[in-house]
Amino acid sequence: MKILVAVKQVSILDDEFEMRDDGRGVDADFFEKDLNEFDHFAVEEALLIKEAAGEGAEVVVVTVGDDEADDALRTALAKGAERGIRVWDDSLAEVDSIAIAKVLAKVVEREAPDMVFTGAQSADFGHATTGMALAGLLGWPHAAVVSKLDFVPGAATATLHRELEGGLEEIMTIQCPAVLSIQLGINQPRYASLRGIRQAKQKPVEELDLDALGLGGGAVTSASRVRRMYAPEKGQAEIIEGTVAEQAARLAEIIKELRGI
Amino acid sequence: MAEILVIAEQRDGAFRSASLEAIAAAKSVKGGDGKLAVAIVAADPDALVGDVSVEGVDEVIAIKAGSNDFQPDLMEAVVAALAEARQPALIVAAHGVDAWSYAPVAAAKLGFGFASDVQALRYEDGELVATRAGYAEKVRVDLDFPGKEVVLVTIRTNVFDPAGGAGAPTVTAMDAPACDVSTAHVGWKQPEDAGGIDIPGSDFIVSIGRGVGDESKVEQFLELADQLGATLGCSRPIADNGWLPKARQVGQSGQLAANCRLYIAMGVSGSVQHQWGMKHVETIVAVNTDPEASIFSIARYGVVGDMFEIAEELENHF
Ligand SMILES: Cc1cc2nc3c(=O)[nH]c(=O)nc-3n(C[C@H](O)[C@H](O)[C@H](O)COP(=O)(O)OP(=O)(O)OC[C@H]3O[C@@H](n4cnc5c(N)ncnc54)[C@H](O)[C@@H]3O)c2cc1C
Predict the structure, then answer these.
(1) Do the strands B35-42 and B183-189 form a parallel or antiparallel pair, or are they unpaired?
(2) Cα–chain center distance at B169
(3) Domain that includes residue A52, residue range
(4) How far is CA B226 from the centre of its chain?
(5) Å from B67 to nearest chain A CA?
(6) Is ipTM over 0.90?
(7) How far is CA A55 from CA A1, A51, A88, in A?
(8) Which of A178, A235, A248 is the closest to B298 by Cβ?
(9) pLDDT tens readout for residues A13-25
């Protein structure tokens, strides 16, 4: 039994940042990197299923990213995933989520897992696209924003909840294998133990380029292109300056005025 | 101008009004001689034709399905069939959870241009450009779609005013295309009882986000809200952690602060899903240590600072 979890190392902007000279991105000096929040839940869900399945079950984490993305894999390995796969080629630096899905599809074909999980979206761009595009390319059953999952490895179908607007959930069954995008709150993600972190360093991470996946020669094309990136116009917010006491006093005034006290 | 196609949605037979915002987005790029068609898939699509017969819609394609169940496979087959038959240049849907399940799938399968969570559409020198947010709402990104004959976009909710006004579209009836489906509807689970907490009814909400940091710090904000005469709300991570009941969660998967007039967000970054529940509030006050937090972009007043320090000082005034 094998579950493949596709994870992303997301970029978090510093409190202040500058745009790139070409106007199509943010200057990389202003990034911090971290494993996508949603992916913690996807990894945890896979680990829970693996642990319930016992011997012979495996969780494989895959990412498409440069060597900085190794940290994302190590984080998942430290939590208990068995091995990692990192695919990279410099030609992927500016591609979109659908292009990433094309790469992941080749990895899924190679690994032939029983289930594929992704996060419901990435915390940086929120495309909510990669996982479902991957399902489309594979022709696999799929469901997005899964907030509860009942999957017994080997079963022909799984039962899941799709979280909808307003806290409503739909309960549905789905044929397996499937690609599911996992929602926040589906479980309580574990923290890696010190032992786990040590062990993660020894776990195998396979590095693949596009040729290894049969995707050389410009086969990985995007469905969109960044024309420009820019800071949005500043809002209308009146920033309350001063010492904390002064700020709080002004805030109290605003509240009292609006509340008619 | 080629045709624009909007995929409208229903849930359990009830029309999803976000589809009217998708229609409005489509209208924003419909040229004078353009054609706008709206497709709706349901067991009884005729019952929903009226909902989408708004001004600017030229045709409603009423697609009869075996049930009202949401089947991603069926929606993808519908998109494929309509794209083939109509050759639209642009296909538009609302960026709701259902579209999350089928729109990227259809786009990837069919080789369309694609952008999700789009907040503006326009043509620049004849090329379609879609604007969306990035890096936790801190930047805007303009996307184009070189070489793509068909582009599929999903539209962020609460950006476009819902299309309205009476229209007189022609109605075309169609049977849903045959397809194998891999999911089956079992039932619904309603949100838990609110236990007397009334976010939708409250006119004054103090809301805390992940900036609160620790469960032990939550209590003091319950007290603060009480002292100010406000209802305490929260962002999703606080509810997911079990620090506050789900009934206090403001946002897309929680509550809409429908009657709120004053909303004080403390340690909330202002994600699109949180904004869904509170962006409309007349007076929003944001307290956040990050001057670039997107919550400031929708706030009337802002304090760049520590929520604990402000909370402590604020108490002295009430
Ligand atoms: C389908 C779907 C539905 C969702 N539904 C909802 C929903 O209904 N509601 C919701 O809220 N989210 C929802 N989310 C999650 C959403 O995407 C965000 O993850 C979430 O809103 C972030 O919450 P936050 O702002 O509290 O946390 P963060 O984004 O982590 O922000 C914390 C903020 O606190 C600030 N901060 C830190 N310390 C301090 C301090 N001492 N003083 C002041 N400020 C401080 C930081 O600068 C930061 O801006 C949903 C997501 C999905 C995919």
Answers:
(1) unpaired
(2) 26
(3) 2-213
(4) 31
(5) 14
(6) yes
(7) 9, 8, 32
(8) A235
(9) 988 899 999 999 9
